[in-house]
Amino acid sequence: MNIHGLSEILLYFMAILLLTAPMGILLFNVFEGRIPFGLRILRPLELLIYRVCRVDPRATMRWQEYSAALLIFSLAGALLSYALLRLQGWLPLNPQAFGAAEVTPDLAFNTAVSFTTNTNWQSYVPEATVSMFSNMLALAMHNWMSAAAGMAVAVALSRGFSRADTDDLGNFWVDLVRGSLYVLFPIALLAALAFVHSGAPQNFSAPQTIRTLEGAQQIVPQGPVASQEAIKQLGTNGGGYFNANSAHPYENPTAASDLLTKILIFLIPAGLTYMFGKMVGNQGQGWALFGAMGALFIAGALVCYGFEQAGNPHLAQLGIAMSADESQPGGNMEGKETRFGIAASALFASVTTAASCGAVNSMHDSFTPIGGLVPLFNILSGEAIFGGVGAGLYGMLMFVVLAIFIAGLMVGRTPEYVGKKIGRYEVQMAMLALLVCAFSILGFSALSSTYDLPQDSAWNRVGSSAAYYGAPRNNVNNAGSHGLSEMIYAFASATGNNGSAFAGITANTPFYNLTLGVAMLAGRFLMILPLLAMAGSLVRKKRIPESAGTFPTDSITFAALLVGTILIVGALTFFPGLALGPIVEHFQLHQLTLQ
Amino acid sequence: MDTPTVINTRKNLPPKLFDPPTILRSLKEALLKLNPKHTIKNPVIFVVEVGSIISSYYFVAALSDPGADHLFVGQICLWLWFTVLFANFAEAMAESRGRAQAKTLRAAKTETIAKRLKNKEIELMPAAALRKGDLFECSAGDLIPADGEIVEGIASVDESAITGESAPVLRESGGDRSAVTGGTKVISDRIVVRVTSNPGESFIDRMIALVEGAKRQKTPNEIALNILLSGLTIVFLIATVTLLPYSYYSAGAGGAVPTVTVMIALLVCLIPTTIGGLLSAIGIAGMDRVMQHNVLAMSGRAIEAAGDVNTLLLDKTGTITLGNRQAAAFLPAPGVSEKELADVAQLASLADETPEGRSIIILAKQRHGIREREIEALGAEFVPFSAQTRMSGVNFAGKQIRKGAADAIAAFVAAWGEKIPQSILALVEEVAKQGATPLVVAEDRRVLGVIQLKDVVKGGMKSRFEQLRRLGIKTVMITGDNPLTAAAIAAEAGVDDFLAEATPEMKLKLIRREQAGGRLVAMTGDGTNDAPALAQADVGVAMNSGTQAAKEAGNMVDLDSNPTKLIEIVEIGKQMLITRGSLTTFSIANDVAKYFAIVPAMFVSFYPQLAALNIMRLSNANSAVLAAVIFNALIIVALVPLALRGVAYRPISAAATLRRNLLIYGVGGLIAPFPGIWLLDRLLVSLHLA
């Protein structure tokens, strides 16, 4: 580690710290129906949407109705995307003439689910599979909608804590429209302009064929990259316009755009903690959540950066310098862009996995074992470290309920959080959400690690090609500990709705498309439903006034407790698996016994 | 009740936790509790039992395989069974104490013969044949055959069978002291009683069922905690089961996949067996601790609610102040010396046996050295208090000496055509303003002055309320006094609030208002008119001396009828919750060390590099797994005393409690197993057991 790298991480976190309160105030005002002055010009549009969609914005919803609206909305979106992807051959803006052949039914299912669930896992190579029209409508649409839906759920759960003696969690449609209109739209618009400024293309041109300096021919795809980039990061979606994602110079041209990208990813998740504090009427509550998230994030980023900068002992043994100097960055540069270097790449990896974004500016598969463990751990922590837009807050609140119940009894009272008693129903729902994650990640990765499909099984056929791709095991290209890491990472990423890949798996096979698709659905909706049910139970409860006997949840002690709970409950579940993956790989690497 | 502390034989017995006969009996119980029908109620322990059965099968199967490691499999199997047994033992230990109490209660329930009254005829019949609504008669020396309400007569009753208190208590028809309990003994007089409960539903029956834990229902927090523990058990079950495929994948061609025995060992170490095994013992012990204070809780839920209480409603008289007012000062009229007033006041009180009267004599002696005189020796005639005159005093040496309320004395001096002088009336008002009661003293037509009678706040109450405030509990004093008096006493006692001129309806309204604000309310009461409020309160403690209606309405009965105990009940409730939380935290924090013991051991055959995770430097794979399993089992036994006694409780703020307990049980739980497992490992190796 060196001072440049450390200051990069520190500066980034300071920027987030500064933006948290203003963002939180914006979110709070928007979801309380107090539209900020400058955005009121959009008000007629909002009303028009209600009229066209025949939504009564004054209607209130109980948790069942809220959930039903969310599910119907998501189902409709997924079906639409599926149809558009399969029918892209007949649709406009398709200069490369992609058709249904590129998007097989299992891939279309996986992709539709992936974008609907805010995962943006891509089993395919975008520039060789989907048309511009598909990109903009079937996919980028969800960048907006899944982010707005996630925010709505977080807001509804916050209302469960902040309101009392009612069953009104708000109105899903109103939350959805306001979130996208007054939060996502203006920020994404500004961000898109900034991306254009830093050099990202924004056009509808056909791919350009150019002659490279070496004299070779290269096809350079074009398209509305900047606009997709902005919402991809702001909505913690992560699905790239190009396969190389944010490592691609068109998606992420400069160091400045790289910093902007990272800020966009944490902007809303961080702001939501402040909004939560404002909603429950105690800013300390919001900062305690932020503190727990921040501590876990910083620790992860430093570990990741430290191990990446320390480099590979095998290379060191060969006499390759591993420390940075003026002429070279040192450390592990494999899979990293020279534009960004080690610190920015390690930081990006930490940000994108903590926040369930999944965009990447470097290849996580090429990280050192512990450097790669950090992103994996971030995902396994239930996406509670800032987490996806909305998902981060509700994931963290799930851990809050568990932490409060494990340790809260220690103060000699029935545990309560922000004035709400945490009882059996809340514990049941939080536990259910936690179980779904563990079950999906461990179950599917265990399945794919042992159940070796026959080499020529139809389940193993890659895309529409006739190619079977069996070696060495179910399309995982690496054997041993690294291969296991790849499998755990894939299902963790799907279940956690992250979408980044450790790569190394050729995932565009029916087997992976279906299992990963199911994991994404489970990780999104089977987590949201129990939490909305919990919100429904909480919102009916009375608010207990705070006293000296109240478990203090706006303190450093509580933030520490929360961190401990996430580490022990969230991570211990996966420790044995991790021991056989990145951890043993680390020891193999350092004992120079890695094959 | 004058003395706040009740000397009680049972309460003051040192609670012997581990006497050999109890341990032996509990061990036997623990074996009987292996019945899966019993263990299934506790999911965590049930999983351990299933694990024990499976590993027993593997042990038996391994016996025919000469290559198997019999010693290792056998030991794991043994310690898994011990884990279940230890958990059962903890529960049995907790129950055994209640059972001892039940035994003494049963002794009181010996078959008695009832004298049933039917058409004014006495009919002898076994007590068990009495039904609700029957009338029976009891005279001196009779055991009361059933619970009931006195309809006729007055009697002193020995209730030591249920309260442990040997002094007899008075029970009479009508009013708030009319309830009698089956199994208690009439010592004097004769009463006629109407039966209020059928056989099997009586107070003593319920008490036996409660102390035996037969009817113990899980409390809301216990249920929620059980869900949490079951959920964690499932999570770890998934984590362990998926390890098998992971291992098959990782072992590849070389190395041995962990055996089922080792997998079960890992699972048992990870699931929260410590708290799972001790959870019900903690609950039973909580009930038991309440019982040791001679309070009968109708359910564990009530004790738990006591820990949550935000507002305490305390009756002024008997709880905050001593039962009676006491003379505090002599305030003479102009031209009268204080000593003269004290002298006359003492004369007026010589035959007055009320506590107020006694306190006047004591004050006269303390302040002015006036010795007590014999009323007969003086030849004075005692004039007792009567409802008509509302005065008492003596006729002595031709003079009529009286003391009484200002208006009563005004009527008395009016006989001489006198009025109470303005200066005295000013004194009377002054005294009333301070929250005290003025008694005016007159000798014939002459009004000598005023005696100030004050409510005396019990010693230590102020600091008690201070403690409660630190715990976030608001105290409200309930009194029939006027607001002026109430405010003065409230200020002196240091309560947060008061309800003056309280009626039962106002009490009920106050409780409802507090509850509407999300607060939990606890109160004590004894009268029939307290019943609605007792039922409405979250914790209603009825006095055993009170009416049947009050006892039915509350969810606890204080056998000593000491309202101050409410505070102790709250503390016990808190302590029970703290014990549960602390052991849960401890149990989960323990997992970290166990992982470091077992995980390297499991995979070392195909990933020798993982030995780097063996930070405890445990000797070998078998010793590591065994040490973790043994530690896991022994920690249950080691914590039984803590579970039964409850963790140390201090009246400090929640924030301080959290920091303290998080440090002890959280951080402690993280660290403690490391040396423990290391030590066991060394022991196993030196004994050649692994």
Give a written overview of the molecule.
- The complex is a heterodimer of chains A (595) and B (690).
- By secondary structure, chain A is mostly helical.
- Chain A is built from 18 helices and 4 strands.
- In chain A, strands 1-2 form a two-stranded antiparallel sheet. A two-stranded antiparallel sheet of chain A has the order 3-4.
- The radius of gyration of chain A is 23 Å and the shape is globular.
- The model of chain A has no long low-confidence stretch (mean pLDDT 89).
- The longest helix of chain B is centred in the first third of the chain and has 39 residues, at 70-108.
- The two termini of chain B are 66 Å apart.
- In chain B, strand 19 (521-525), helix 22 and strand 20 (539-543) form a beta-alpha-beta unit.
- In chain B, 53% of the residues are buried.
- Chain B has 690 residues and is of the alpha+beta class.
- In chain B, helix 4 crosses helix 5 (70-108), helix 5 runs parallel beside helix 11 (273-292) and helix 24 runs parallel beside helix 27 (654-671).
- Chains A and B meet through helix 13, helix 14, helix 15, helix 17 and helix 18 of A and helix 8, helix 9, helix 12, helix 24 and helix 25 of B.
